[in-house]
Fold this protein.
Amino acid sequence: MTTAPANQQITIGNFLCGEGGLGPALQASGVAGQIREQLTRFTEPTRSEAVAEVEKISADVLNLDVGDVLVGALAGYAALRAAGRRTAADTAASELVELVSHEISLDNQPSIDLLVDGVQVATVHLTLSLLIDVQAMTATVRAGRLTALRVGRCDVTASIGVDGITVASKQGQLQLPVSLPVGAGIPLTAPARPG
C-alpha cells in the first residue's frame, strides 16, 4: 500500500516509479535502446540526450497528482452537480454526498517529436492509463461548490507505455490523505449566462 502524508501529493509517476523516476524503467524495458536505434545517424551524445529528453517529458506527463485527478473527475459527477444546484442559491446551505464505490479512469496518449538541428527525426508515442477505484468517499457541497472531499481507500492501476512497450505498470492500494484540498471550492453549477 502506498500512503501519502497529509502535506505530500502522490503523483502518477511516484506511484508507478517511486523515487527512482522513469529512467531505469526506460532502460530495463529496452525503450531507451529503441530510441537510440532510431537515431543511429547521430552521435552517441545526441542519442543519449534524446533518451534523456524523452525521460524528462514523460516525467512531466506523469506529474499528475492522483488527488487532483480524482477531484477533477468528480466535479462532473451527477450527484455532486445536483447537490450543487440545490445549494447554489443559499450560501449557508451545505450538503454531504456519499460516493460509495466510484471508478475513475484516465487515458492519455501524447506524443513527443524529437528534433535535431530543427528537423524532426523521430516521434515517440506515449500511452498513460490510470484507473482509480474509490471504495468510500464523502463530498461536502456548499453554495454550489465542492468544498471538501474525504477519501477512504483507493485501488489504483496505472501504466505507461512508449511506442507500444509497457515501461512501467503497477496495481496497488493507495491511501490518500483523509481530506483532499480543494482550495476555494470547485464550481458544480454552470455560471449564469448574461442576458
Q: What stands out?
A: The chain has one domain: 2-182. The chain has a mean pLDDT of 86. The CA atoms of residues 149 and 194 lie 31 Å apart.
